[in-house]
Design goal:
The protein folds into 2 domains: 6-37 and 304-417, Alpha-Beta Complex (Aspartate Aminotransferase, domain 1), CATH 3.90.1150.10; 41-277, Aspartate Aminotransferase, domain 2 (3-Layer(aba) Sandwich). Helix content is 40%, strand content 16%. Helix 2 (38-51) runs antiparallel to helix 10, helix 3 packs across helix 12 (301-329) and helix 12 (301-329) packs parallel to helix 15. It has a 7-stranded mixed beta sheet with strand order 4-12-11-10-9-5-6, sandwiched between helices. Strands 13-14-17-16 form a 4-stranded antiparallel beta sheet, with helices on one face. It has a two-stranded antiparallel ribbon with strand order 1-2. The protein has 423 residues and is of the alpha/beta class. The chain binds pyridoxal-5'-phosphate (PLP). The site of pyridoxal-5'-phosphate has 12 residues, from helix 4.
Length: 423
């Protein structure tokens, strides 16, 4: 296929049939959670209907559950570019990060340092800030507020060999879409002898992830941001896992990936996660001609298809996002936040509208079937530093592989109407 067939993509999502007062619902809330394709719904249903059991039993449904769980670890490995034993599942990214901070924190002593950033979602800040209770010093990389990008000069000086033990950084900002050079952050951490932890929750549907190329020790994401159910995934480099002792029951295996997986997991969610990754791979297979020139050499099977699927989404969404920013920028009273044009950014577009609190604008748009988010999206530190807390934060439009130009035209018209009504 030489063009991206958005009609096919949309046909896979039952939710997209919904209307609000006669208008089709436009799901522009992807950064808060994407919609779910039919094959994911089917996988969750089928697991619970036909295979539901606990692990390790000597009967059919338990053996099928063992296979389902093994397949979820393999699918996670194809998503992230690692071995199945390096992907663990948990409730969500936040819970996994607290768990990880506990495991790494046990290895730290008072005076050791952790570096976080002012750009990050609170889920990659609070768990590390809490280590201050143990005497750990938490240092924060500032943000250049004009461009919503990290201050790399400060980053370079804050990471210090002998002092820094953990560097926690986001792959992409869920508030304004900035994509960070996490390979550079991981290299800084490595040179200092520190562990690197990457929050890839927002990035995960906006580009392929290759943990080996990034050189990070840990990377976390959430399946509900890439068409899956509400479960979290964590890549833990095998050698990094060997250095720590995560909380675990005496009866629990110490082998990765299970060492990180406490209690009975969300098996139906894991079955759904495999289906979500297969769905992305299917998009890759259908659109390989569109992205052939960007596909790294040497990839095979589902991994190659997943990388192609992630690239295809971006090839489709980025021009739409550029168009949207241009249109919004022309509306009186609109101010767009994010990195300069041409800088790495996801297809998430955030703005304010003079005369409206962000929540008021989002309500008015929601009433027209345009589902956008408002507030700080838990990137509270950035929104506070931008001085937007009192204005209700930002209005956030998230593009997804099922978003259409027509939906964005409706949004631009609606924002234009709001702008006029305030003048
Ligand atoms: C960038 C980012 N990090 C972390 C999280 C938290 O993820 P979870 O809901 O899986 O805990 C989110 C959720 O919105 C996010 O966007």
């Amino acid at each position: 296929m030489t063009h991206y067939d958005v009609a096919y993509v949309r046909s896979q999502f039952p939710a997209l049939k919904r209307t609000i007062d006669g208008r089709p619902a436009a799901y522009l809330d992807g950064p808060g959670g994407t919609q779910t394709p039919r094959r994911v719904l089917d996988a969750v249903r089928e697991y619970l209907a036909d295979h539901n059991a606990n692990l390790g039993g000597r009967f059919a449904t338990s053996e099928e559950t063992d296979a389902t769980i093994a397949e979820a670890h393999s699918a996670g490995a194809d998503l992230l570019g690692c071995e199945p034993a390096e992907v663990s599942f948990g409730a969500n990214m936040t819970t996994l990060t607290y768990f990880l901070a506990e495991a790494l924190g046990r290895r730290l002593k008072p005076g050791d340092e952790v570096v976080i950033t002012a750009l990050d979602h609170e889920a990659n800040r609070s768990p590390w800030l809490r280590l201050a209770e143990r005497g750990v010093v938490v240092r924060e990389v500032p943000v250049d507020l004009a461009t919503c990008t990290l201050d790399w000069t400060a980053f370079d000086t804050l990471v210090q060999p002998g002092h820094t033990k953990v560097v926690a950084v986001g792959y992409a900002s869920n508030a304004v879409g900035t994509v960070n050079d996490v390979a550079r952050a991981a290299a800084l951490a490595r040179a200092a002898g520190a562990w690197s932890v990457v929050d890839a929750v927002h990035y995960a549907l906006h580009g392929p992830i290759d943990v080996r190329a990034l050189g990070c020790d840990f990377l976390l994401c959430s399946a509900y941001k890439f068409f899956g159910p509400h479960v979290g995934l964590m890549y833990a480099r095998r050698e990094a896992t060997a250095q720590v002792e995560p909380l675990r029951l005496a009866t629990q295996t110490a082998e990765p990936p299970y060492i990180w997986e406490t209690g009975t997991l969300n098996f139906e969610g894991m079955a759904g996660t495999t289906a979500a990754i297969d769905f992305i791979a299917d998009l890759g297979d259908r659109n390989v001609a569109l992205v052939e020139d960007r596909l790294p050499a040497g990839l095979k099977g589902r991994r190659r298809a997943v990388v192609a699927g992630m690239l295809a989404g971006e090839v489709y969404e980025q021009p739409l996002a550029t168009w949207l920013r241009e249109q919004l920028a022309g509306i009186p009273g609109v101010k767009i936040y994010g990195p300069p044009e041409g800088s790495p950014r996801t297809s998430t577009v955030s703005f304010t509208l003079e005369g409206f609190l962000a929540g008021e604008a989002a309500r008015a748009l929601g009433d027209r079937g345009l589902f956008v988010w408002d507030g700080d999206f838990y990137a509270a530190s950035l929104v506070r530093l931008l001085g937007l807390a009192e204005r209700g934060g930002l209005i956030r439009v998230g593009l997804a592989p099922y978003t259409t130009q027509g939906e964005l035209e409706r949004l631009v018209t609606a924002v234009g109407d709001l702008s006029r009504s305030a003048r």
